[in-house]
Amino acid sequence: MKPSLSVMTVGVRDLEVTYAFYTSRLGWEAAQYVPEEVIFYQVGHGLLLAFFRRDHLAAEAGPMGEAGAAPVTLGHNVASPAEVDAVLAEAAAAGGSISAPGTQMSWGGYSGYFTDPDGYRWEVCYNPGLSVDEKGNVTLDVAEVMEPLEADPGPAGAMSGQPG
Questions:
Q1: DSSP letter at 144?
Q2: In Å, what is the CA distance from 11 to each residue of 54, 57, 126?
Q3: pTM score of the predicted model
Q4: Alpha-carbon Rg of the chain, whole angstroms?
Q5: Any residues with CB less than 8 A from the CB of 110 and at least 6 apart, and which?
Q6: 8-58 pLDDT, tens per residue?
Q7: Where are the beta strands (DSSP E) in 26-140?
Q8: CA-CA distance, 116 to 124, in Å (whole number)?
């Protein structure tokens, strides 16, 4: 089998809550939306992220554990540490919760995490060694360890999901 991933499907409790979070609040454009069934978002070159009603997914694929039971995160890479913080703030303002604020990492990058309404954790990451070419191939070079950045918490509560 050739290594390939074209669709990542995750089960959700309430498809309409998921649709509102990603489409209405975060501004994502659905590639396809079948109410009460599934939402597809184009998330990269040749990659769709599908949110499927958990009960329908279990009926189709067999019983599954609860969200958060599997050690899985979804990754969103950005161009700078400041953009990590901006995306985390945007997710918090949209109703997500910050599970880890942006932090300088020992391997040279900068990342933080937010959790969506179903408990899926998104890592928002600046990785100076990651690049994607025009064919969609990801290259990962070893990044040099960077000096720690001063954390800018922004407006009070902006990173905690709490009103400021």
A1: P
A2: 4, 6, 27
A3: 0.70
A4: 17
A5: 81, 84, 102, 103, 104, 125, 126, 146, 149
A6: 989 999 999 999 999 999 999 999 999 988 999 999 888 899 999 988 888
A7: 30-34, 38-44, 47-53, 73-78, 97-104, 110-115, 121-126, 130-132, 138-140
A8: 13
